[in-house]
Design a protein that fits this description.
Number of strands: 9
Structural class: alpha+beta
Largest sheet: 3 strands, mixed
Low-confidence stretches: none
Helix content: 25-40%
Number of helices: 8
Shape: elongated
Radius of gyration: 32 Å
Strand content: 15-25%
Distance between the termini: 86 Å
Strand order of the largest sheet: 1-3-2
Length: about 280
């Protein structure tokens, strides 16, 4: 057995619980001969120690995490007495332990990721802004390179009182605020850009060649997927009337990259001729 203060001992062979091999034992005395033996021992529930001698216990907290069903941040509590863990991984409300850490996890999980048991109605506008940003990542082929969760967390930190770290406290506070108090725009959830993003350069549809209709577009940035790129949805009855070059059309936002790729594919002689002709 591992004992208090990092000691190691064995049950005395003559003990009445020797053959039972209990997980925890409490001994009246320790006798050291060939080994350190525990005599006059009894089975022991480690949870009793905290109830009888809480002043001898030390508490450690770890693993703050969001629990959406409770709408709060919980962590693991470990109770240690004389170096032995008498209670391990007991769930505890982390807001009572470290409100600042609990608030940080709450803002990220509940408000930014919106990982709640049911959607929070007042965050509908922000959900749409984040979804638009995520779609824009596919459109610009910058998956993971546009949405900036830290900026959204900073936005909420600025708006919410420092005492709020649970969903219940948030809903109680927000109901008394003017409409739009916590609404953010697309720019609020994006990484700072060197050049402004022109959303209109990545349309959700384009006009048919004859100008009589619209073809919807879907974007996917996943090189391993057959649908990677832009997919155009065309009614079957329109398919035979389309020109062959329709598949070469590009949305305005992709034209610059296409032109650069074409120029890079030119032979050096052709590229130099093109350069001189421009001059």
């Amino acid at each position: 057995y591992k004992g208090a203060r990092n000691s190691v001992f064995w049950l005395f062979p003559g003990s009445g619980i020797f053959g039972a091999s209990p997980a925890w034992v409490m001994a009246f005395d320790m006798v050291e001969t060939a080994k350190l033996y525990a005599r006059n021992a009894a089975m022991f529930d480690p949870g009793w120690f905290e109830k009888v001698a809480p002043h001898l216990c030390r508490y450690r907290y770890s693993n703050p995490h969001w629990k959406k069903n409770q709408g709060a941040v919980y962590g693991d509590e470990r109770v240690i007495a004389f170096g032995l863990p008498v209670v391990d991984k007991r769930p505890v409300h982390y807001g009572r332990i470290d409100r600042a850490v609990a608030r940080e996890v709450f803002l990220l999980e509940a408000l930014v990721n919106q990982n709640t048991r049911v959607p929070i109605p007042c965050l509908a506008n922000n959900r749409e802004a984040l979804q638009l940003a995520e779609r824009l990542e596919h459109k610009m082929r910058r998956l993971g390179g546009l949405v900036y969760p830290e900026a959204v967390v900073a936005f909420y930190e600025d708006k919410l009182p420092a005492s709020i770290c649970t969903q219940k406290d948030f809903e109680k506070w927000v109901v008394d605020q003017p409409d739009g108090t916590i609404d953010f725009t697309l720019d609020d959830c994006l990484l700072p850009q060197v050049e402004p993003i022109r959303i209109e350069d990545y349309p959700d549809s384009i006009s048919a060649p004859d100008g009589e209709g619209e073809f919807s577009l879907s974007y996917l940035h996943c090189p391993a997927d057959p649908a990677d790129g832009i997919s155009m949805t065309i009614p079957l009855e329109e398919l035979s009337h389309l020109p062959d070059w329709i598949g070469e059309w590009m949305v305005p936002g992709w034209l610059g990259e296409k032109v650069s790729s074409l120029l890079r594919s030119l032979r050096k002689d052709d590229a130099s001729v093109e350069s001189r002709s421009r001059g």
